[in-house]
Design brief:
With about 55 residues, this protein is mainly beta. It has no helices and 6 strands. The chain has one domain. About 0% of the residues lie in helices and about 50% in strands. The protein has a 6-stranded antiparallel β-sheet with strand order 1-6-2-3-4-5, with no helix packed on it. The protein is globular. The termini are close together.
């Protein structure tokens, strides 16, 4: 449960969602996510087009 926000309104800590993937926005166009089960978290630029940003809490 959360509120959808625009990319311009996204803040560090917001979720970044695409079908089949969820990451945490870290700011400056980056996010952290585990690429595969059992792998460490990795910070990288947001890839793909049109992610949905979700603010929880």
């Amino acid at each position: 449960m959360g509120v959808r926000v625009s990319a311009a309104e996204a803040r560090p800590g917001d979720l970044v969602w695409w079908p089949g993937h969820v990451g945490i926005y870290t700011g400056d166009g980056n996010h952290i996510a585990a690429r595969q089960p059992g792998t460490p978290l990795h910070e990288s630029p947001i890839y793909g087009a049109n992610p949905t940003f979700i603010r929880v809490g």
